[in-house]
Amino acid sequence: MERSSATSSREKLFKVLVIGNLGAGKSSIIRRYVKKCFNEQYKGSIGVDFALKTVEWDAKTVVRLQLWDIAGQETYKSLSRVYYKCAMGAVVVFDITESSSLEGALEWKRDLDSKVCLNSGRPIPAILLANKCDLKERDKDLVSSLDSFCKDNNFLAWFETSAKDNINIDEAGAFLVKQMMLCDTSPSDEEDHRDRIKVSHTPEQSESQSACC
To answer: What is the pTM of this model?
Structure first.
């Protein structure tokens, strides 16, 4: 959605889904991204929560993100088609200390791809967050498999994140915004963009990598 002002500035509004199993850290990631804080007390989402993030993308563009925090309980998947409607991007979160959490992320991604897509028929831009990387139980073998996992399952990138320690939260958000902007403004170039994919970001790998939808 776009509107112009007398000064030629523009605003874009994107609906972004934040999905994954219960306890993966979705709400904490949103709180860190939007409010720049972390709450030690965990409270699972019920149904769907909403948050708004404003990004000054460039001198002429303001991007407003409507973040939909969808509860991770299995019962809410039956309502996912309603929640997913009109989404332009997705963040799929799993707990890097729990290998079974990655299987849950895959189920959510398959559900997402079956119910929403771009006008071209391609999957909406989606990134994978391997959350809780600050914990010592971090599964290094699991991390080493994520490049191929993302390539096989149409994730544009993955990031190791920590909502608690603020690791890669803003970087992941900026990456997804870039992909949504590309899909929104250059639909005819989607196939060319998709060939340029880098799917790994770890705390030790801070350089910016380019990938497109």
So the answer is: 0.81
